Amino acid sequence: MNRTTALFSALLCTSAPAWAGDKPLYQPVPDWVAPAAMPDPAKQTDASPATVIYDQQHRISDGQVWAYSEVATRAVSPQSLAGMGTVQLEWQPDAGDLIVHRAEIVRGGERIDLIAKGQTFEVLRREEQLEQLMINGTLTATLTVEGLRVGDILRIAYSTTDRDKTLKGNAQTMIPLMAAPGRAGFARARLSWPAGDKLSWRYHADGTAPKPVRKGGFDEVELSLPLAKPADLPPDAPARFRKLMMIEASSFADWQSVSRTMAPLYQTDMAVGAEVKAEAAKIAAKSADPRMRAALALRLVQDEVRYLYRGLDGGNYTPQAAADTWSRRYGDCKAKTLLLLTLLRELGIAGEAVLVNSTLGDAVPERLPSAAAFDHVVVRATIAGKPVWLDGTGSGTRLGDLDDVPAFRNVLPLRIAGAEVETLATQPPGRPAVETLVEVDQRAGVNLPALVTITFTMRGAMAEMMRTASAQATAEQLTEAAQRMANGVMGNMLLNGRSVSYDADSATGTMTATGVVGSQWRMRDGRYRLMLDKTLGQMEFAPDRARPAWKDIPVVIAPGPFAGTLRQRVRLPGGGTGFEVEGDRSFAAPLAGMQIARSVTVADGVIAIEDRLSTAGREIPPAELAAMRAQVVLAKKRLLEAVAPAKVPPRWKVAMTGGKAAFKPLMEAYARAIALEGDDPNSVNAYLNRASFLGGTYDAKAALVDLDRVIAKEPTAERHFWRARLRNTIGDADGARADAEAGLALQPDAGEGVGLLASLRFDAGEHDVALAMLDERIAAGGKDKADYQEAKALMLGEAKRVAEGSALMDEVVAAKPGSPSVLNGRCWFRGTMNVELEGALKDCTRAIELAENPAAYLDSRAMVYFRMQRMDEALADLDAALETAPELASSLFLRGIIRKRRGDAGAAEDLAAARLISPQIDKRFGRWGIIA
After folding, report:
1. Residue ranges of the domains in the chain?
2. % pLDDT > 90, the chain
3. Is there a contact between 153 and 74 (Cβ–Cβ < 8 Å)?
4. Residue 815: how many CA atoms within 13 Å on its side-chain side?
5. Which end of the chain is more exposed for a tag (fewer CB within 10 A), N or C?
6. How far apart are CA 196 and CA 350, in angstroms?
């Protein structure tokens, strides 16, 4: 704990009494220090360690710790001089002295004594919150080194002494141990104490501990450093398996002694103060329920007393008086704990202070009994015979959280009679820390974008953090935060609204984001499917215990303890008729240490899912890991998903039957996104998304309006090619050509642009120019060569040079005989040119057999069957292609032609759909002599 001594006299008076050790002393190195071996400066090279000496020697005697340090560092570069040029030494003057023994520059065989030259340390008092008339008592002695050059060695030796009255004659210390890859010319750790003293010491590192030896009436242990690199550990290993890389020493006999020594600091039988009594009276007037009183007292301390200073390590352990903490409205964990205990006593609630380690609580039993094993203090109250844990430095704790057990693992109660270290049995929290509600409106259709609302609710400390951050954030930063949250849940969402709120009574923060996401339904096994299992879908459990040295190390479940809730509501098209839900609807056993309580309902066209997750954060023994891995793998094979009916209206049908009314909610959502984005003049994301939607629903003219805005702000090759395709779709060949040329000017090597421009030039009658463009790319080779050859073959065919095109396609197939796309290319060429149909049929059939998604290849074979007048087989292939690719305009057009010739009533819809998707399709098929 940091010292909280009030120095009102020093701040308010011009002449104030100084501490006994408030100035550095200059003395020789004490006799008990073993001299460090200084490497020969003349033998230092660029490969030598920059740290020449790193020597740490501590002596404990008569309740005092004398810590001697010597550090010599070589200035290896001009940059290193900046860090070496100022030396800062800190100490606590109310506990002891800072003693400077040596400050010198070693330059070759010369030693420059900086102190003898008058370069002495200046003392700074590091002040915090000076406007509150408090300083922390730490002093800093600073030396600005003059004359330091590259190649010099700066050698500093000093001591600090520490006799902490709070420890009642006990002493404790820790010496850090340097380990590889750290390097030093000479490095050592040494600990000594009077022979016969009851002092315990412990080595916390890999390898064999040093053995004590007796010299001149003192016992000592010494280690040459650096030690070997610590053994690697898996990241999910418990803290107690991680070496602390230190030697620690303590004169405390046991944990009982530590508890007895520290307990008097938190006795509340002293003067309480009128203001604290008044606050307790206000709480008592609000409720007679002890739990509610405890919750209100804790909220008062958390919310009305700001935190200042840190932890228990390294200083005065005495808290300031409760009355002082309340009047000043600040305090560290010690001060807040004493104030909270005082309030509880006034409210008739029993409580005690408890020492904890906030990060290494699992390792406390591995430590020596000492106050230094802890860095925090909290309150354990007893209400109705049950423990209630209260942390005054926390935030957002409310009545529903009082039964939570903190994750400190091991704690030491402070009692006048003494106490032993206790191990806490963890349990899931009473309230979920996070609740996520995802509402998806998919009523426009499973193959169309969805409207989404995400509500992210945080409680307790997380809510307080959100409250603070949102209060300081700009509108743009809040939008960015909402976007990150939305993307984390839905992948890539176009944001069109967000809000942030906080409820102080429940300590609950809420962030809401609304927007649009592209359809996340995917075709598999002939049905559209939506992955619903965001819980198992994101769960990973693959602890690594393959190394023999790791086989007995448990796995820590993190985060823990933890509780959270994920709710999803998906509104289905068509009132949900024909939709199903597959996958696990419940879990009998925990998965990866996480208990999952799941409920799934399907009613009134809505799929509702709720997953409640909780874990106590327990450790999983190595013997259970294999079975747990298998459970997770098996569960992930049965992920929850929605399955659409076999017959889903394609986008063209929605566009044709519903018109603009069908897309009105989506268009309004895009308009809101554009309005939100209007605050950012450089962003075009909303316009891009709406252009994509409009193009995907076959309104090319409206899509062009948005794309014009985008390209005016941020032109790219890809966007020019996109606009070229849209312009070509509506018959604007000149505009399409201009865009293709503009795109190639930005990205000359873009294969898409070359093919597009060549096609446009060919359509304009510039056959030789178009073919020359493709020849240039074919000659360059590369992975796209076959695509250019196929494009050239089709142009040759349409230019009445069918034999040349056929020969070129044969050359492509010979180079890649097993490629389904190449086989399909030759099949399509032969079908459209109405040549070598038997060979074309073989090519397409082989391509279909090889392909994972054969829709386009079925379309090609249908063309061949059509040419062969085998209409039933052509229709069968077209139906199969449109089953998985219902937007395939060529299949719709050809099926419409066949149906029309047969007098089928469905012909008109097929032809209208094909023309909606591809307005130039009649012209395209007309080139091949196929007229609707």
Report:
1. 8-251, 257-423, 435-643, 886-926
2. 84
3. yes
4. 18
5. C
6. 42
247-257 pLDDT, tens per residue? 999 999 999 99
3-state SS, one letter per residue, for 553-584: CCEECCCCCEEEEEEEEEECHHHHCCCEEECC
Cα gap 736→744, rounded to integer Å? 12
- State the pTM of this model: 0.84
Three state DSSP letters for 255-282: HHHHHHHHHHHHCCCCCCCHHHHHHHHH
Amino acid at 257: S
**CA–CA distance, 895 with 393 (Å, rounded to integer):** 73
Half-sphere exposure of 702 (CA within 13 A, CB side): 13
Residue closest to 921 by CA, chosen among 885, 897, 886, 901 = 897
What are 660's two structure tokens? 């603009």
| Residue 361 burial by Cβ neighbours in a 10 Å radius (0-12, 13-18, 19+) | buried
Q: Each residue of 642-677: pLDDT tens digit?
A: 999 999 999 999 999 887 788 999 999 999 999 998
Buried b (16+ CB within 10 A) or exposed e, 559-573: ebbbbbbbbbbbbbb
In three state form, how does the secondary structure of 382-412 look? EECCEEEEECCCCCCCCHHHCCCCCCCCEEE
Using the 8-state DSSP alphabet, how is residue 43 labeled?
A: G
Residues 6+ apart with CB under 8 A from 675: 496
- The four Cα atoms 253, 254, 257, 258 give a dihedral, to 10 degrees, of 110
CATH architecture of the domain with range 8-251: Sandwich (2.60)
CB atoms within 10 A of CB 503: 13
* Per-residue model confidence as pLDDT tens digits over 440-486: 999 999 999 999 999 999 998 889 888 888 888 998 899 999 999 99
Please say whether the beta carbons of 378 and 422 come within 8 A. no
Beta-bridge partners for 26: 100
Residues forming a β-bridge with 162: 65
Mention the CATH class of domain 257-423.
alpha beta
679 confidence band (pLDDT: 50, 70, 90) = low
Residue 126: band (very low, low, confident or very high) from pLDDT cuts 50, 70, 90: low
Cα angle 330, 335, 338; round to 5: 135
**Which residues fall within 8 angstroms of residue 672, CB to CB, at 6 or more apart?**
496, 497, 514
Mean pLDDT within 729-743: 97
Tokens for 217, please give them. 């009436």
